[in-house]
Write a structure and sequence with these properties.
Elements (H helix, E strand, L loop, with lengths): L9 H11 L1 H8 L6 H5 L2 H11 L6 H16 L4 E3 L9 H8 L1 E6 L2 E7 L4 H4 L7 E5 L2 E2 L5 H9 L4 E7 L7 E6 L9 E6 L2 E5 L7 H9 L6 E5 L8 H11 L3 E8 L4 E6 L10 E5 L5 H13 L3 E4 L8 E6 L5 E11 L14 E2 L10 H12 L7
Parallel strand pairs: 9-10, 10-13, 13-14, 14-17
Antiparallel strand pairs: 1-16, 2-3, 3-4, 4-5, 4-6, 6-7, 8-9, 11-12, 11-16, 15-16
Length: 381
């Protein structure tokens, strides 16, 4: 039995090796490079012993990329090692255009942060909050985010996935067939007297015009912005929302590893600043929409309702390695004016509502409308 332990797949050896050298990246990113050699002095000996004493033959060429990825995954699960010869550019946009999904890693597996309605992924049965456990039979736990994204771009027509849906307890196999789709746009409605609802599931060209027209229909009362499933967008999109709803001035700042800050500014006060604004968010709210929610909450410009977000992603940068290949790792994080970092810390709503979100029966929205209509707004505990 003891010897069977040494017959486990080589992937466990790769993971173990990556964990051992994780101190290297941690030391560099935390600016403790003075102790770098102390943490890594055993690594050459470990690699030598693995090569000489491990019971099975070891292909060091194939093992080392896994060790490098282990280093990066230990500090950020969405950081990637990209072997020589592969395109180092992000494939996030191509994945979205082919499938309608925004993919990241969460709890070590590929995760559908957002899924566009009527997109190929949605029509295949994938919903936001789904875990993609396998891609073409390969566990996403052992894949970098770059590998996951590249798996989609390398296939022309379809891809086979093993998925855990958010409302299921068992995995299911899904064949996702790629194809064009029309991204969702702003939707305006008046679900109840005195309440205007504007859903913005994504940012797109022409949103400023559509939002201006929708707000022209709001005559007093309460305004609810539904920002669920909005998981894309950059600083320009953040400033777009700010130009309607937030005060003039510094919104937040990007902070790098040397604590240098680059301010994100709102040049003039929002047209609807000071209105009775409520925002509905959830785990699928990310990037510009999540930053907007955090700033509005900090400023007291809106009441936030729904489920907590997952935490604003950092800005990633690609570095070329001298020996070939590249790495992608986070180099800047979003910091609020209070000094609080959004990275790895999601937004806790003023009213936490623990209802799972399903597109077919939107119980979350029903509950939020009840709260907004009654102004039963209690701070989350």
């Amino acid at each position: 039995m003891r010897w069977q332990m040494f017959k486990q797949p080589l992937v466990w050896l790769v993971v173990a090796t990556g964990t051992l050298v994780a101190f290297t990246a941690t030391a560099i990113l935390q600016r403790k490079s003075g102790h770098l050699f102390e943490h890594t002095r055993d690594f050459p000996e470990i690699v030598h012993l693995v090569e000489q004493a491990y019971v099975d033959e070891v292909d060091m060429v194939h093992m080392m990329p896994g060790a490098y990825q282990g280093v990066l995954s230990s500090i950020d699960e969405n950081a990637s090692y990209i072997p020589p010869g592969l395109d180092p550019d992000s494939h996030e946009e191509q994945v979205y255009l082919k499938s309608g999904m925004v993919l990241f890693k969460n709890n070590s597996y590929a995760y559908a942060l957002a899924v566009e309605t009527n997109s190929p992924a949605f029509l295949a049965g994938i919903r936001r909050g789904s875990y993609l456990y396998k891609i073409e039979g390969q566990s996403t736990r052992q894949m970098s985010l770059h590998q996951i994204q590249r798996s989609f771009t390398e296939r022309e027509k379809e891809i086979t996935l093993t998925v855990m849906l958010p409302d299921q307890s068992e995995e299911t196999s899904i064949t996702l067939r790629f194809g064009p789709f029309e991204p969702s746009k702003l939707c305006y409605s008046q679900p109840e007297a005195g309440i205007s609802l504007i859903a913005i599931p994504c940012f797109y060209e022409g949103l400023a015009h559509d939002l201006k027209n929708a707000l022209a229909k709001v005559h007093g009362g309460k305004l609810l912005l539904d920002l669920r499933n909005n998981a894309r967008g950059g600083d320009d999109d953040l400033r777009l929302l700010a130009s309607f709803f937030l005060p003039k001035g510094k919104l937040a700042a990007w902070t790098d590893a040397d604590h240098n800050r680059t301010a994100v500014l709102n040049p003039k006060a929002g047209t609807f600043q000071g209105s009775s604004l409520f925002i509905l968010l959830g785990p699928s709210t990310s990037f510009a929409a999540e930053a907007f929610c955090a700033i509005a909450q900090e400023r007291g410009s809106a009441r936030i309702l729904g489920r907590a977000s997952l935490g604003y992603p950092s800005q990633y940068e690609t570095f070329a390695l001298k020996v070939g290949g590249h790495i992608q790792l986070p180099t800047r994080s979003m910091t609020l004016n209070s000094g609080q970092s959004l990275t790895r810390k999601g937004i806790v709503p003023d009213n936490k509502i623990e209802i799972k979100e399903f597109e077919e029966t939107d119980l979350m929205l029903e509950r939020v409308l009840e709260i907004v209509a009654g102004d039963a707004l209690e701070k989350a505990g």
